[in-house]
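Async update (no meeting this week)

Hi team, since we skipped the sync, here's where things stand on the single-chain job. The sequence we agreed to prioritize is pasted below, unchanged from the tracker. I ran it this morning and attached the output directly underneath so nobody has to dig for it. Comments welcome in thread, and please keep replies under the output.
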Amino acid sequence: FNILSGLAVDAKGNLYVSGASYGPSGTLDAHVIKYRANNDNFVSQSVPTHMDAGETYTLSVSFRNTGFNTWTNAAGYKLAVLGANWGVTSVPFASTDAIGPGATKTFSFRVYAPLTSGVYNIQFKLYNHTTSFGILSPIVPVTVTLKPDAARFMVQTVPASVKAGTAFTVTVDMRNVGTNTWTQAAGYTLNPAAGYPTWGVTGVLLSPADSIAAGQDKVFSFTCTAPPTAGTYNMRWQMFQQGFGFFGDRSFAKGIAVTP
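Output:
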């Protein structure tokens, strides 16, 4: 501007700068520039293009703050998850987040694949309370396949610490999201995930009466034994079928402190 004539802020907090300049033909031209209080640029996303129906996947999405408000949880900022039913509709900012102008926020979160086969779109957009702003992320078409053997990890109960060499109880809840029914006779077990300590367990059997159909949960409760040497050891579990191997979600990796 050759002449700055005014500043104004609207009800949404957007800033307007007005002014005038002399044009090439000698005319006096008026200008208004709008600076958005809430605005963003999409930076990147990591989304698998193939998923197994009903199972859990970790995604990441990054947006840069190109407005002049600071994004915080307390101010009502969140990431919306759009498209099919992904088991989550929005992802909050962390309570410690303060994403100022020019800074980038990367969200990392878990979604559930839809329970039926097909191609489903997923997309992301930022919101302040119930008002969207900025640009949408690119649409990602995700091909979802319904499998005979599939499992979703639900929850586990694992102690934070145990004494070396002692026995303790663990519970793990797995949901059947495949088409096969889990039975002991068909060789379904819960095993230590590949590459993790066994904790004295090679495989946890279903009971002879168990018949875990699609959509049903199986809660395994079993005894583990701590290693004889003090230290921190990881624990993780996954469904297994004899003759076919591991399938489905793994439980969260849990570090357990083994004390003398």
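Quick observations from my side:
The chain has a mean pLDDT of 92.
The CA atoms of residues 122 and 143 lie 11 Å apart.
Reply here if anything looks off.
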